[in-house]
Design brief:
With about 180 residues, the protein is mostly helical. The chain contains nine helices and no strands.
């Protein structure tokens, strides 16, 4: 069976998610795929190209596929419900590993920065829609996103008993309660 470029990228995301940044060596990738280095190099000129393509692949998942999950009706209540749940739909473990990899890999850092900026901009648009009283939706979005990213580092267990209280505090803080 031929191993496609998309197969390599999905494998890269899986290895990163399951084994961390150290799993993204060409040796580990080829061993996990059961393919040769030649197969890898058929699709990618080098590891940096692979990482760049991996980030573009993840970007599509993180942004475009998530945007497709926005409520179709676009009502303030629907958008609030989306914003209440979206931070908890993110794969926190994967995003932590990705941020760790970004420290050592400039191509990953650039891709992550691009996703972070796009998420903040999208969040700002939603905030402007549901909370017209907010004078600076971008700053509000930045703070809200920073809280979501920070919580990825502070709360490792999705069953953490503090989560319901933390959620309620965030809803109040960011005006995401039911109207």
């Amino acid at each position: 069976m031929r191993f496609s470029r998309a197969n390599w990228l999905e494998l890269g995301l899986e290895l990163l998610r399951e084994h961390g940044a150290d799993a993204l060596t060409i040796e580990r990738l080829t061993a996990a795929a059961g393919k040769t280095r030649g197969s890898f190099y058929h699709h990618f000129a080098d590891r940096d190209v692979f990482l760049s393509d991996l980030m573009a692949h993840w970007r599509r998942q993180a942004l475009e596929e998530r945007a497709a999950q926005l409520p179709c009706d676009g009502t303030p209540d629907g958008l609030r419900a989306f914003l209440r749940e979206e931070p908890f739909r993110m794969d926190h473990r994967f995003e932590r590993v990705l941020r760790q990899l970004a420290v050592a890999e400039p191509v990953v850092r650039r891709g992550l920065d691009e996703v972070d900026r796009a998420r903040v901009e999208g969040l700002a648009l939603l905030i402007a829609t549901i909370r017209p009283e907010v004078d600076d939706p971008r700053s509000e979005a930045f703070v809200q996103y920073a809280v979501a990213v920070g919580s990825q580092w502070l709360i490792d267990d999705p069953a953490d008993p503090r989560l319901p209280g933390i959620r309620q505090a965030a809803y109040r803080l960011f005006g995401l309660g039911h109207s």
